[in-house]
Amino acid sequence: MLELRLVQGSLLKKVLEAIRELVTDANFDCSGTGFSLQAMDSSHVALMLRCAGNDDIITIKADDGSDTVTFMFESPKQDKIADFEMKLMDIDSEHLGIPDSEYQAIVRMPSSEFMRISARTSVVASATQPEEATIIEMQEPVSLTFALRYMNSFTKASSLSEQVTISLSSELPVVVEYKIAEMGYIRFYLAPKIEEDEEMKS
Predict the structure, then answer these.
(1) Tens-place pLDDT, residues 44-58
(2) Which domains are assigned to the chain?
(3) Is 150 helix (H, G, I), strand (E, B) or coil?
(4) Is the pTM of the predicted complex or chain greater than 0.70?
(5) Could you tell me if 199 and 179 are in contact, meaning their C-beta atoms sit under 8 angstroms apart?
(6) Distances (CA, A) of 148 to 58, 82, 109
(7) Most buried residue, 65, 98, 175, 182, by CB count within 10 Å?
(8) Which segments constitute the Proliferating cell nuclear antigen PCNA N-terminal domain (predicted)?
(9) Burial of 47 (0-12, 13-18, 19+ CB in 10 A)
(10) Three-state SS string across 106-135, please?
């Protein structure tokens, strides 16, 4: 039997809201050490979770061998519990091994600033507060081109964390990471666009 209880149910809502335009079907991997989801480039779960209030406690239950999962929303402010049952899907997906890599440049900045830049494709503005500063650690210069549509989708996770870390390297996909307090993180990986000039040289 599986039972997960999330006192901060709004975090699950925000995570699923952040990925719903990118992912249509996905497997949740549950173990004694945690709860994870890995998917490749929306869903009924995100729609159902909109029924939950931001202060609701969310419990996820599934019996061994069952083909359904139950989501239970408990409202601490009201004496109210709502249950939703959802049929599980058998999704044949390969778990991707993502190796730890050294990146040539790492950018740490406020999530709100990353959202603003992605939305307007403008230049990074200077900040007056240390927590609002953009910090760049660079081993060597990196010049990459990415599909702005995906970067804009990644910014939907900004409500999960005040800071975003963007790791760049000419040989690797960009990693856009939002830390979720002590609970974990959400990471997006995006391969850069290959310029036509580079293709001609090959």
Answers:
(1) 555 555 556 667 788
(2) 2-87 (3.10.150.10), 105-201 (3.70.10.10)
(3) helix
(4) no
(5) no
(6) 34, 39, 18
(7) 175
(8) 1-48
(9) exposed
(10) EEEEEHHHHHHHHHHCCCCCCCCCHHHCCE
